């Protein structure tokens, strides 16, 4: 095997990920990738998915998220880039038309299930399982709120749909609860404020990933409905329960933590004890250390022959020119996503309202039935009392 020769790049590495949608997990992926390359003094630049040429970069690191999907989507097709690039800890939803990955420098996915999907129709592909780079995220130096000892709460519309009485379970928890917006594109902050949360709660604002990572790290435990909120808790060694999603379950199963997800209210109530069993300890430390070692090895293999240099000319995305066409495409995507999310949220609110109306109607029916029973009982009681009085007056006779 030939020895690697150090190479000094004339172009930056391009970081291509979902930098468009306002998703904490995707933004964290970009931050963590950039941090890692800065530490290695490797020139790099964040790529605008709507306006880029692969030739402007030594190669692309196409990273994270749930980006590898069936062809035909005008947005996600932008992440199917042929050439000598890198697929980094990718979440996958397809096994179709992936032969272009055979030319990649390195292909990594974030779970064993993702690897199985990827190899279904491309069996000759060399694929590694590398945990999400966000496990290396560093927390903010200054935090805007004191969440020490609180239980963090995050949920979305699907959580309420699947878990009837979810708010009642949260309200029953004795600790102070910190309501934490996480999937901003889902308008989760608005939804969580509309839900019937009564008791000792604080409602946090929308923060950047480092701040959220730090806030979660100070909590005693969390109940969440997001993969990366789960990852943030895991990386901080914080006990958690997480709403079942396929990608979340795949993350958990690879670490023998599948028991920490819930599909409905009954499962959530049965598993609440997991939030308090390991208080003051880090139940995930060995697994987490193994994850960090795997990430480190992946990057060492990828970057070991690259000479570090000053990165100030490449590391910022702020100087990236966004064309009018790119801005229009961004606006269209965000408008479409917003319409979908709001429609889903409003449908849920309507469903919850219907549930409340149905319960109220049942209560009215029950109260009416009880009132009729009371009247019937009162009438019988009065009749009985009259007969008693007649009996006592006569001093004889039958009822």
List the helices and strands and how they pair.
Elements: E1 13-16, H1 24-39, E2 44-46, E3 60-63, E4 86-90, E5 106-109, H2 112-119, E6 128-129, E7 151-153, H3 157-162, H4 166-172, E8 177-179, H5 188-194, E9 201-203, H6 209-217, E10 221-224, H7 227-236, E11 240-243, H8 246-253, E12 261-262, H9 265-271, H10 285-303, H11 324-394
Parallel strand pairs: 1-2, 1-3, 3-4, 4-5, 5-6, 7-8, 7-10, 8-9, 10-11, 11-12
Please give the share of residues in helix.
40-55%
Mean pLDDT: 84
| Gap from first CA to last CA | 110 Å
Percent of residues in beta strands: 5-15%
What is the number of independent domains?
A: 2
Overall spatial form: elongated
Helix count, DSSP H or I runs of 4 or more residues? 11
- The CATH architecture term of the largest domain is 3-Layer(aba) Sandwich
Major sheet: arrangement of strands: 2-1-3-4-5-6
- Provide the gyration radius in Å: 28 Å
